[in-house]
Amino acid sequence: MNRNIFYGHLQAHHPGSSEENVDDPEGNEDDTEHSHDELSDSSYNTESSSDSDSDSEEASNTNTTATESDDNEDGYTWNCEVYCGKSDTYPGLGATDSLTARLMTPLFDLGMTLYCDNFYTSIPLAEYLLTQKTYLCGTVRTSRKGLPHEVTKAKIKKGEVVSLQNNNGVKVFHWKDKRSVFTLSTVPEHDDTLIPTGKTTRNGEDITKPKSILDYNKTKKGVDVSDQMSGYYTALRKTRKWYRKIAIELLCGTSIVNAWTIYNKYLADKKLPLLAFQESIVLSLLTGSPSETIRPGKQRASISGSSKEHHFLVEAEGQKRKSRKRCVGCYEMLSVNEGSRVASAKAKKVSTFCQVCDGKPFMCMPCFAAKHN
């Protein structure tokens, strides 16, 4: 893939974003169980053709997010693959279907459910996954091959649903809300029963949806969270070579968001905002003890590790305006040069403090780095 194509993909909108109002017309967003979608940094996917057996080979970077639990609010990125040219396809599957199957291979025969958007959903993929004891659910394009016209072209009223199932256990649903929504599922529990969402219309009527829609909407948020968090404090710069941007995004975007997700999940009493977590990583790399380096022909004494505990900044809870305090470093510097009265008025107010120092003093980043160097 050349440089111009890469930049075109990089600047494209996230392909899944256009589906939010289609999948959930009320604008509700819920989460992901085992969800498959494009990386946000990698909106490197061009649009595929409508038929699954002729999917575009320009999909340059895709990922699978999965978790063992039933609730993946955090959006942990479980697996990914960078497009490196034409690859082998599975018998009976197109390029995109084969890519999805490759990413899901480690999860085969575990009874997992894969949720994906209409870029990936197709009948051949669903039938193949069933042979691997893996279910599939997702929105589907009406132009996909093999979809029954009795469902895709059915004239139904708002709130109604029609469905058909083939001999292999693949079900296609057509549900009408503000617009028609088409889903494909092999999950046994999914049928055409409308389930109350717990919400009501302005007229007091219960809002109901098929279970396939409810489960799909529940699983989509994990992908959105992963994309959103990796884009907040991106390390990407226009001057970098495109191939370096891929490495930078995977290391400084996807990997850090994954590490932050695990940290907050298993250290719930010490949760950190993403920015504070990134800063703590940078500081630990800058101030950490160097490892012993052995050079050929030279004897070097071993370098002992520092016994000091690693310090890091933490964002104070609550509204920033109310939780801010004067930076102790700025105050000390100003009080020496201009007096305490001026320092009390001019010292920078910050909402970050050192979690390890005695008294947990509030500090700005430059003062924190200077005091802990």
TrEMBL record:
Disordered: annotated segments: 1-73
Domain PiggyBac transposable element-derived protein: start-end pairs: 72-260
A Pfam family that the UniProt record links to this protein: DDE_Tnp_1_7
Bias (Acidic residues): 20-32
InterPro entries (UniProt xref): PGBD
The protein's name in its UniProt record: PiggyBac transposable element-derived protein domain-containing protein
Gene source species: Petrolisthes manimaculis
